[in-house]
Amino acid sequence: MKQHYFFIFSCICMMLATSSLNTHADDFLSGTSHTGIDNLNFQLYGGINKSANENLPMSEFSSYPWSGGVFLGMGQEFNALWGWRTTLRYNYNKSRNVQQCETPDTWDWQSLGLFADATFDITDALVSPKRRGARLNVKAFAGVGASYAFGYPKDIPLSYSASYSTKSKVVPAARAGFDITYRINDKWKLGMELSHTIFADRFNGVKTGSPLDMRSNMKIGVTYVLGKKTPKPEGTDTTIIYDTRLHTVPTLPFRIPNSEETKQRIVEGRAFLDYPINETFIDSKYRRNPEELKRLRKTIEHALFDKSIRVQRVTFHGYASPESPYSNNTRLAKGRTQSLKQYVCKRYGIRESVVETAYTPEDWVNLRTFIDTRGESRRTKDNIWYEHQSIVETPEMPQYVIDHRDELLRVIDLNMDLDEKEQLLKQVGGGEPYRWLLQYVYPGLRHTDYTIEYEVKHYPVKEARRLIYTHPEALSIEEMYRVAQNYGEGTDGWLDALLIAARQYPDDATANLNAACGCVKMRRLTDAKNYLKKAGNLPEAAYLADIIRAMEGKVKWKMENDKVIITENR
How far apart are CA 129 and CA 1, in angstroms? Predict the structure, then answer.
């Protein structure tokens, strides 16, 4: 692409000239009455094009054919540096588009293009803001668009050795270049554009190894600016806005948390184990039991990670689904609860004396809740250690169940023998709603809820620094605060410890206050305000809110003894 080096060389020279111009510009070139932001404007340019076959050597540059074109453009700047422009371009083109210079034939065609450009004001980028808006201005632009090529010659061969097409077509294109303007007055500018365009048209019809054709353009014309900037009266000074924000961080009102004399913890879970029909023993390989037992173990082992942890109380409450006789469901609920108790106690060495069991033979309450809420109550969140954030344990309730929802609830609410109630439930809607409930809802009613209450020891700072990332639930707020202090104020570990404490104890005012202080220290004011909302009515929280408002410049303030005093609300 040697023949296009002249364009690149011209661009470099243009940028160097712009830099020199803005370094040494005199008052004649300055735009002191302008903001440097161009209003909506229209451009009409005309000029010359340069087209050539990519295979022609640089030595034949002088023989490349010249042609011409015009464009109508519209543009505006978003700010002093960046803007946009759209252009509609017509070009009359000539080319020696032959392979390996087989023939000196020159042929012509026409093109119509529409482009959208992004513009960057080089002149304003190289000077201070108060010197922007110079009369002589250079912008760089780059854009994409489409070009419609037409009017190919029918009687001139484009190539003797490569296949080609003279059909008209729309092709994608991209372009870049510079636009140089001189402002005559507030309405008119003289301009010159130097650009380079790449077309995906396979050398204007000739099918060769390269899919691209390139064309250099130089245009001159005028720009008309819409709107008129109102000049400031002579002698009017520009208003100076002073930054009244608090930039230094004063002493922050951290609060030392109270220590826990006894660190009591509790973990809760729900196990959905599958059992063979009428059986109560746990088969670890049956259906989805491997996954459920793994989740159960993960919950317990996470809580009992330290051998020094003392389990104080464990409860199991088993539930069965309300099908089959009530007496049999009583046997199943009781037996399956005992099976899970024995499994956990044996695996983790928990004394049976601290274990309590209970059972509900038929879980009518959860069945009713499921039907009443149309299934929303069966969405289980990750607080019971599912691998994913949420699991929908049943499909969406079908319409034929929804249609009989009121009748199903009426039967469930009847005060009668439970076995007779079950028979009535089977008859609702011809039995179809019951069959769907039996298949998709009843399995989830066969579950065991469990809680483990245990006591955790107090940890020294060295060990607490490790646990705060792996087992934050084992640490108290006071221990986490000591970890933060151990890292040193302002460090990443210091902020981590404060934020982890607030996440682990989201309802604790002291933990949230200290997290807010940490965020203020690191100038994360939005995060600080979010934590401060949970800091309650602590006096330290009210003072920290004043500090934040002063740092945001929303109040007038003064400093006395390294303390922020609000003097006036804005």
Answer: 39
